[in-house]
Write a structure and sequence with these properties.
The protein is an alpha+beta fold. The chain has five helices and seven strands. The chain has a five-stranded antiparallel beta sheet, covered by helices on one side. It is elongated, with a radius of gyration of 24 Å. The two termini are 32 Å apart.
Protein backbone atom coordinates (compact mmCIF):
# COMPACT_ATOMS: atom_id res chain seq x y z
CA UNK A 1 0.00 0.00 0.00
CA UNK A 2 1.29 3.45 -0.88
CA UNK A 3 0.72 5.55 2.22
CA UNK A 4 1.06 9.03 3.63
CA UNK A 5 1.65 9.55 7.34
CA UNK A 6 1.92 12.63 9.55
CA UNK A 7 -0.25 14.91 7.42
CA UNK A 8 -3.19 16.58 9.11
CA UNK A 9 -5.50 19.54 9.64
CA UNK A 10 -4.74 22.23 12.18
CA UNK A 11 -7.05 24.82 13.72
CA UNK A 12 -10.15 22.66 13.35
CA UNK A 13 -13.14 24.47 14.84
CA UNK A 14 -14.37 21.45 16.80
CA UNK A 15 -12.32 19.73 19.51
CA UNK A 16 -11.06 16.45 18.04
CA UNK A 17 -8.13 15.60 20.38
CA UNK A 18 -6.39 12.81 18.46
CA UNK A 19 -4.72 11.63 21.67
CA UNK A 20 -7.95 10.01 22.86
CA UNK A 21 -9.80 7.05 21.41
CA UNK A 22 -8.70 4.38 18.90
CA UNK A 23 -5.99 4.96 16.31
CA UNK A 24 -8.57 4.92 13.49
CA UNK A 25 -12.20 5.95 13.94
CA UNK A 26 -13.50 6.55 10.42
CA UNK A 27 -12.44 6.38 6.79
CA UNK A 28 -13.66 7.30 3.32
CA UNK A 29 -12.90 5.83 -0.08
CA UNK A 30 -12.11 8.44 -2.73
CA UNK A 31 -11.57 8.07 -6.47
CA UNK A 32 -11.21 11.08 -8.72
CA UNK A 33 -13.33 10.83 -11.90
CA UNK A 34 -11.30 9.18 -14.65
CA UNK A 35 -8.51 8.12 -12.29
CA UNK A 36 -7.33 4.56 -11.79
CA UNK A 37 -6.22 5.30 -8.23
CA UNK A 38 -8.36 4.17 -5.30
CA UNK A 39 -7.70 6.04 -2.05
CA UNK A 40 -8.71 5.35 1.53
CA UNK A 41 -8.46 8.39 3.80
CA UNK A 42 -8.70 7.88 7.56
CA UNK A 43 -8.30 9.85 10.74
CA UNK A 44 -5.23 8.83 12.71
CA UNK A 45 -4.93 8.89 16.48
CA UNK A 46 -1.59 9.08 18.27
CA UNK A 47 -0.80 7.87 21.82
CA UNK A 48 -1.61 10.53 24.44
CA UNK A 49 1.99 10.53 25.72
CA UNK A 50 3.28 11.31 22.23
CA UNK A 51 0.79 14.14 21.72
CA UNK A 52 1.61 15.57 25.16
CA UNK A 53 5.32 15.47 24.31
CA UNK A 54 4.75 17.42 21.11
CA UNK A 55 2.46 19.85 22.89
CA UNK A 56 5.09 20.57 25.52
CA UNK A 57 8.09 20.87 23.21
CA UNK A 58 6.83 22.75 20.14
CA UNK A 59 7.12 26.52 20.85
CA UNK A 60 3.99 27.60 18.98
CA UNK A 61 3.02 31.26 19.27
CA UNK A 62 -0.39 30.43 20.72
CA UNK A 63 1.30 28.39 23.45
CA UNK A 64 3.87 31.10 24.20
CA UNK A 65 1.17 33.80 24.39
CA UNK A 66 -0.82 31.69 26.82
CA UNK A 67 2.24 31.10 28.99
CA UNK A 68 2.94 34.83 28.91
CA UNK A 69 -0.58 35.57 30.18
CA UNK A 70 -0.10 32.91 32.87
CA UNK A 71 3.18 34.54 33.98
CA UNK A 72 1.56 37.98 34.17
CA UNK A 73 -1.38 36.52 36.04
CA UNK A 74 0.95 34.85 38.53
CA UNK A 75 2.68 38.17 39.18
CA UNK A 76 -0.67 39.89 39.77
CA UNK A 77 -1.83 37.08 42.06
CA UNK A 78 1.38 37.26 44.12
CA UNK A 79 1.20 41.05 44.39
CA UNK A 80 -2.50 41.62 44.94
CA UNK A 81 -3.76 38.28 46.19
CA UNK A 82 -5.98 37.79 43.15
CA UNK A 83 -6.81 34.44 41.57
CA UNK A 84 -4.13 32.75 39.46
CA UNK A 85 -5.35 32.08 35.86
CA UNK A 86 -4.50 28.37 35.73
CA UNK A 87 -6.27 27.95 32.38
CA UNK A 88 -3.62 30.12 30.74
CA UNK A 89 -0.86 27.93 32.14
CA UNK A 90 -2.10 24.99 30.06
CA UNK A 91 -3.83 26.99 27.31
CA UNK A 92 -2.82 27.68 23.75
CA UNK A 93 -2.51 24.00 22.93
CA UNK A 94 -2.85 22.98 19.28
CA UNK A 95 -3.46 19.30 20.12
CA UNK A 96 -7.27 19.37 20.71
CA UNK A 97 -7.79 21.09 17.33
CA UNK A 98 -5.38 19.01 15.22
CA UNK A 99 -6.64 16.01 13.23
CA UNK A 100 -3.90 13.72 11.82
CA UNK A 101 -4.51 11.80 8.61
CA UNK A 102 -3.60 8.39 7.28
CA UNK A 103 -3.87 8.04 3.51
CA UNK A 104 -3.63 4.73 1.65
CA UNK A 105 -3.83 4.09 -2.05
CA UNK A 106 -3.10 1.89 -5.03
CA UNK A 107 0.49 2.77 -5.81
CA UNK A 108 2.39 1.37 -8.81
CA UNK A 109 3.64 -1.62 -6.78
CA UNK A 110 6.77 -1.71 -8.90
CA UNK A 111 9.37 -2.46 -6.23
CA UNK A 112 11.52 -5.60 -6.42
CA UNK A 113 13.44 -7.34 -3.66
CA UNK A 114 16.80 -8.95 -4.40
CA UNK A 115 19.81 -10.35 -2.59
CA UNK A 116 23.05 -8.48 -3.17
CA UNK A 117 26.51 -10.02 -3.32
CA UNK A 118 26.80 -9.98 0.47
CA UNK A 119 23.47 -11.77 0.94
CA UNK A 120 21.67 -8.64 2.14
CA UNK A 121 18.07 -7.98 1.10
CA UNK A 122 17.76 -4.92 -1.15
CA UNK A 123 14.73 -3.11 -2.54
CA UNK A 124 14.80 -1.59 -6.02
CA UNK A 125 11.93 0.87 -6.23
CA UNK A 126 11.19 3.84 -8.47
CA UNK A 127 8.61 5.95 -6.59
CA UNK A 128 8.06 8.38 -9.48
CA UNK A 129 5.46 6.03 -10.99
CA UNK A 130 3.36 6.51 -7.85
CA UNK A 131 3.69 10.31 -7.72
CA UNK A 132 0.30 10.88 -9.38
CA UNK A 133 -1.47 8.89 -6.69
CA UNK A 134 0.11 11.01 -3.95
CA UNK A 135 -0.93 14.21 -5.76
CA UNK A 136 -4.55 12.99 -5.82
CA UNK A 137 -4.27 11.97 -2.16
CA UNK A 138 -3.15 15.44 -1.10
CA UNK A 139 -5.92 17.04 -3.16
CA UNK A 140 -8.51 14.94 -1.34
CA UNK A 141 -6.96 15.68 2.07
CA UNK A 142 -7.05 19.40 1.32
CA UNK A 143 -10.76 19.15 0.50
CA UNK A 144 -11.40 17.40 3.81
CA UNK A 145 -9.40 20.06 5.66
CA UNK A 146 -11.40 22.80 3.99
CA UNK A 147 -14.69 21.12 4.95
CA UNK A 148 -13.48 20.94 8.56
CA UNK A 149 -12.67 24.64 8.55
CA UNK A 150 -9.00 23.93 9.25
CA UNK A 151 -5.67 24.34 7.48
CA UNK A 152 -4.06 21.40 5.69
CA UNK A 153 -0.57 20.51 6.87
CA UNK A 154 1.61 18.42 4.60
CA UNK A 155 3.40 15.40 5.98
CA UNK A 156 6.83 16.33 7.32
CA UNK A 157 8.18 13.31 5.43
CA UNK A 158 6.68 14.48 2.14
CA UNK A 159 8.14 17.97 2.28
CA UNK A 160 11.40 18.96 0.62
CA UNK A 161 14.18 18.01 0.98
CA UNK A 162 13.02 14.66 2.35
CA UNK A 163 10.21 13.82 -0.11
CA UNK A 164 9.94 10.35 1.41
CA UNK A 165 7.28 7.87 0.38
CA UNK A 166 6.62 4.99 2.73
CA UNK A 167 4.18 2.35 3.84
CA UNK A 168 3.07 1.14 7.23
CA UNK A 169 1.65 -2.01 5.61
CA UNK A 170 4.32 -3.58 3.36
CA UNK A 171 2.93 -6.22 1.02
CA UNK A 172 4.46 -8.52 -1.57
CA UNK A 173 7.92 -9.99 -1.95
CA UNK A 174 6.73 -13.55 -2.62
CA UNK A 175 3.68 -12.69 -4.66
CA UNK A 176 0.92 -15.05 -5.73
CA UNK A 177 0.62 -15.62 -9.49
CA UNK A 178 -1.02 -17.79 -12.13
CA UNK A 179 2.31 -19.01 -13.51
CA UNK A 180 5.92 -19.30 -12.27
CA UNK A 181 7.16 -16.54 -14.57
CA UNK A 182 5.03 -13.92 -12.82
CA UNK A 183 5.45 -14.72 -9.12
CA UNK A 184 6.70 -16.98 -6.35
CA UNK A 185 3.66 -18.96 -5.13
CA UNK A 186 0.51 -20.35 -6.71
CA UNK A 187 -3.04 -19.58 -5.60
CA UNK A 188 -2.65 -22.01 -2.67
CA UNK A 189 0.51 -20.34 -1.36
CA UNK A 190 2.78 -23.17 -2.50
CA UNK A 191 6.11 -22.10 -3.98
CA UNK A 192 6.34 -22.85 -7.69
CA UNK A 193 8.61 -25.86 -8.32
CA UNK A 194 8.99 -26.67 -4.59
CA UNK A 195 6.13 -28.94 -3.46
CA UNK A 196 5.38 -28.69 0.25
CA UNK A 197 7.00 -25.25 0.68
CA UNK A 198 4.38 -22.60 1.49
CA UNK A 199 4.28 -18.86 2.18
CA UNK A 200 1.28 -17.73 4.23
CA UNK A 201 1.60 -14.05 5.12
CA UNK A 202 1.41 -10.60 3.57
CA UNK A 203 4.29 -11.41 1.23
CA UNK A 204 1.93 -13.31 -1.11
CA UNK A 205 -0.44 -10.36 -1.68
CA UNK A 206 0.25 -9.44 -5.35
CA UNK A 207 -0.68 -5.75 -5.26
CA UNK A 208 -1.82 -2.78 -3.17
CA UNK A 209 -5.19 -3.10 -1.43
CA UNK A 210 -5.84 0.55 -0.54
CA UNK A 211 -7.08 -0.68 2.84
CA UNK A 212 -5.76 -1.85 6.18
CA UNK A 213 -4.66 -5.33 5.05
CA UNK A 214 -4.82 -7.43 8.24
CA UNK A 215 -8.17 -9.11 7.49
CA UNK A 216 -7.18 -9.87 3.89
CA UNK A 217 -3.88 -11.37 5.05
CA UNK A 218 -5.69 -13.45 7.67
CA UNK A 219 -8.22 -14.78 5.13
CA UNK A 220 -5.51 -15.71 2.62
CA UNK A 221 -3.38 -17.34 5.33
CA UNK A 222 -6.37 -19.36 6.57
CA UNK A 223 -7.01 -20.68 3.06
CA UNK A 224 -3.32 -21.57 2.60
CA UNK A 225 -3.34 -23.38 5.95
CA UNK A 226 -6.35 -25.40 4.78
CA UNK A 227 -4.41 -26.54 1.71
CA UNK A 228 -1.27 -27.27 3.76
CA UNK A 229 -3.13 -29.51 6.22
CA UNK A 230 -5.94 -31.03 4.15
CA UNK A 231 -4.85 -30.58 0.53
CA UNK A 232 -8.24 -29.19 -0.51
CA UNK A 233 -10.61 -26.26 -0.10
CA UNK A 234 -12.63 -25.95 3.08
CA UNK A 235 -16.01 -27.68 2.89
Amino acid sequence: NGEMLFAGTSAVAEVVDAGHGPSITAGAYVQRPGSSHILLLEDLGFPPAFMSLLDGTLPLLSRLRSLGRAGAGYARAARHGSLFPTRDLFGGSWVPHFLPYLGMGTDAANGQFRLDGAGHLRLDWDPTRSAGMYVEMEEALRRISSALGGTYRRSVLFRRPLRRMLTAHPLGGCVMSDRPEDGVVNDRGEVWGHPGLYVADGAVIPGPLAANPSLTIAAVAERIAQWMVHGREAA
